[in-house]
Amino acid sequence: MCHCPHYGYVFKGRLRAVYAGTDWPDDVASAGDVFFFPAGHTLIYEELSEVLELNPAAALQSLMNHFETKLASGWTGS
Fold first, then answer.
1. DSSP label at 68?
2. Please, which residues bridge with residue 45 across strands?
């Protein structure tokens, strides 16, 4: 689950934000869409996509630090 909110624009493709453990419906953004996915989601790129993401710097840095720690411990994303 991602704790960083994402703002962006989809140039090509399609992505879905899933909010597991909530009653929130999935959010889907396709080519030509502007999107906002609040923290607490999992992103699924449903097809090859070109996306511009704008994220709050502190939240994104925290997320990247988390991924670096996971990868250093041998995590493969599965």
1. H
2. 15
Residue 19, CB-side half-sphere exposure with 13 Å CA sphere: 13
Residue 7 and residue 31 in contact, taking contact as beta carbons nearer than 8 Å: no
Contacts of 4 (CB under 8 A, 6+ apart): 39, 55, 56, 59, 60, 62, 63
List phi, psi (to 5°) of 44.
Answer: -125, 120
What is d(CA 78, CA 76) in angstroms, rounded to the nearest whole number? Answer: 6
Phi, psi of 36 (to 5 degrees): -135, 120
Q: Which two tokens stand for residue 66?
A: 């988390």
pTM, two decimal places: 0.75
Interacting residues of 40 by C-beta distance below 8 A, sequence separation 6+: 1, 2, 3, 19, 22
Q: What is the pLDDT of residues 5-25, one digit of tens each?
A: 999 999 999 999 999 888 888
